[in-house]
Design a protein that fits this description.
CATH topology of the largest domain: Triger factor/SurA peptide-binding fold
Largest sheet: 4 strands, antiparallel
Shape: flat
Structural class: alpha+beta
Number of domains: 4
Strand order of the largest sheet: 16-3-18-17
Oligomer: single chain
């Protein structure tokens, strides 16, 4: 997959624009087609979300994130898609989307098809030099995601309709100017500060460490001095790029596929039409619809008497603002680009025909077909690259399914070695030394090794004692791995004498820190009681906007300090370095504010407020939709303890 992205960056950019950017961003991505019933993990308005739907949605979202990272040339965080938070977020997004879909149905919210079509036309890269939608490129981008134009149109329409729910909440939010001004003043406020540091290093010479101290620390921190369980392993990987290398397409296959799908690689038939719309909303009263129908019938009668008046009558009567001024002209369009009744009428007429009344959700139309451009088949030589890519993708998917089944069966049926499956499928056996059970440590060797399911299988009793292959594990979308332990090393506590020096250093450091803190706190108490200050550094001006000290860690205690009476004192322990006392001698609020920065802060605060209000509104909708979550939040599950390394 990543190789495909590197070789087809332009197409990948369009795919991302088609599927990620227009998507309802706070809802996330949910599968468009679902298979199987599975066990319910949640219910929305009595309708189940199954475990398989949840799994599919995780894979689809992960693949989109992977594609986006590849397109942007950024590393892909495989640990994130395996994390409990990612899985739970996907489920919450699925629930939110189901709730919004139910709300759309309840409120009868829809988006006109012409508006959806225009939105699709605005996707960069899909419009050709002639100003028309590049049908072939659009279909290719959709096919890469297993979608049809109809499926994508429905998805876009649904997402745009959902935005009708969100927009009123998001765009009605505002932050009072007084609040913005107050926050800004705090942001810009400057304080003159002096520092007095009690360096822990200065107390190391005063620390006395006994054998009892060392033994107590060693026993209390055994995990820190334990070499974690690890193993030398072999593994084989089956992924799409590997399979793709083994797929070859013959000229005969190419010709056959082109012949069977010639329509898809052709310039479709286009028709040009004019229309007159007499508006009548779908949910309008019958009396209003009847009045609109009678008006349309009167205009139709005039046209039958004199067809040459079509443009004149359209300008005078049509309720379609986009075409009325042009005499009702809609330009050229292909089959399926208009609402179904309108589409069926246009493509069932001959050039010059005037239709009877055509009723749609928008009202009554009178249509005349003014021109017809027949479909034109593109020769194979012209579309060879597109045909080749599509055919190879299909055959690669088919072969991957076959090979993954063989892979799964062989690593199970021949459990004592990975060589049989590697030889049969022409895969490489990879070796890794000192693989740790900790995913974070394993990831340093190879991101694939950090998969929790793989690590759990590698360090299972069967794999350790029997040296058997693990089952085939899908560590990422369309990436299967099986591993086998070559040598296992149990966790081992290092002897005290071997780590005595490290224990001594840590105990000394802790005791020195305690002494520095005690001295600092005593001095702080003396100063607060009115004692004379001594040893402080030269004063410097600091603020939340201009951080000129060590960083934000220094800023917090300074800016939180009570400055109602100056000088003000505050202190903080900064382990393992020591203790710092801050003496605040002056507070200054600038008289002139940076207008641009203040406006930016106002927008940011409004955006934060809008997101909070939208989140609250979505929670309200969830309550109304009777949401029931049937599984535990994976983040609430206790994590397995991981021993630390000896320092």
């Amino acid at each position: 997959m990543l190789e495909f992205i590197r070789n087809h960056k332009r197409l990948t950019q369009i795919i991302l624009l088609v599927f990620i950017i227009p998507s309802f961003i706070f809802v996330g991505v949910e599968g468009y087609k679902r298979l199987g019933d599975g066990d319910a993990v949640a219910k929305v308005a009595g309708k189940s979300i199954t475990q398989q739907e949840w799994d599919n949605a995780q894979r689809e979202q992960a693949e989109r994130l992977r594609q986006r990272a590849a397109m942007q040339g950024q590393p892909f965080d495989s640990k994130w898609i395996e994390s409990p938070r990612f899985k739970w977020t996907v489920l919450q997004n699925m629930i939110t989307k189901r709730v919004l879909v139910a709300t759309l149905a309840k409120e009868n919210l829809t988006v006109p098809e012409q508006v959806v079509l225009q939105k699709i036309r605005e996707i960069p890269g899909l419009i050709g030099p002639d100003g028309k939608l590049n049908e072939a490129r659009y279909k290719e981008a959709l096919a890469a995601q297993g979608l049809t134009p109809e499926g994508h149109f429905a998805l876009m329409g649904q997402d745009m309709a959902m935005q009708q729910i969100a927009a009123p909440v998001e765009f009605s939010s505002f932050e009072p100017k007084a609040v913005i001004s107050r926050v800004w003043n705090l942001f810009e406020q400057e304080r003159e500060v002096q520092r007095l540091v009690f360096d822990a290093a200065a107390y190391r010479g005063k620390v006395k460490v006994t054998d009892e101290d060392l033994n107590a620390f060693y026993k209390a921190h055994e995990a820190q001095f334990t070499i974690p369980e690890h193993a030398d392993v072999e593994l084989v990987v089956l992924d799409m790029p590997t399979v793709a290398k083994s797929v070859t397409i013959s000229d005969a296959d190419l010709q056959s596929y082109y012949t069977q799908n010639k329509e898809r690689f052709s310039i479709p038939e286009e028709r040009r039409a004019q229309h007159i719309l007499i508006a009548a909303a779908k949910n309008a009263p019958e009396s209003e619809k009847e009045e609109a129908r009678k008006k349309a019938e009167g205009i139709l009668a005039q046209l039958k008497a004199d067809p040459s008046r079509f443009a004149e009558l359209a300008k005078a009567n049509s309720d379609d603002p986009g075409s009325a001024g042009k005499g009702g002209d809609l330009g050229y369009f292909t089959r399926g680009k208009m609402v179904k009744p309108f589409n069926d009428a246009v493509f069932g007429m001959k050039k010059g025909d005037i239709s009877d009344l055509v009723e749609t959700d928008f009202g009554y139309h009178i249509i005349v077909v003014t021109d017809i451009k027949p479909a034109v088949a593109k020769p194979l030589a012209q579309v060879k690259d597109s045909v080749m890519q599509e055919l190879k993708r299909q055959q690669t998917n088919r072969k991957f399914a076959e090979m993954s089944e063989t892979f799964s069966n062989m690593v199970y049926e021949k459990p004592d070695s990975l060589k049989p499956v590697a030889d049969a499928l022409k895969l490489t056996i990879h070796s890794f030394q000192n693989l740790a059970r900790d995913p974070a440590v394993a990831a340093r060797q190879n991101p694939l090794l950090s998969n929790p399911k793989l690590l759990q299988a590698v360090f299972s009793d069967d794999a350790i004692k029997g040296k058997h292959n693990t089952e085939a594990i899908e560590v990422a979308p369309q990436v299967f791995v099986s591993a086998r332990i070559v040598k296992h090393y149990p966790a081992e506590l290092m002897p005290f004498e071997k780590v005595r020096q490290a224990v001594t250093a840590q105990v000394t450091s802790e005791k020195a820190m305690e002494m520095a803190k005690a001295a600092g706190e005593a001095e702080l108490a003396r100063l607060k009681e009115g004692g004379a200050p001594s040893g402080f550094s030269q004063g410097i001006m600091v603020s939340r906007q201009k951080i000129s000290m060590a960083g934000r860690a220094d800023m917090a205690p300074i800016m939180k300090a009570d400055v109602s009476k100056l000088p003000a004192y505050t202190g903080v322990a900064i382990a393992p370095n020591g203790y710092v006392i801050y003496r605040i001698t002056k507070v200054v609020t600038p008289q002139k504010a940076d207008k641009n920065l203040r406006e930016m802060m106002g927008r940011q605060m409004t955006n934060v407020m809008a997101q909070q209000e939208l989140g609250a509104y979505l929670e309200y909708l969830k309550e109304q939709a009777d949401v029931e979550i049937l599984v535990k939040n994976p983040e609430d599950e206790p994590a397995e303890a991981v021993p630390g390394n000896a320092g």
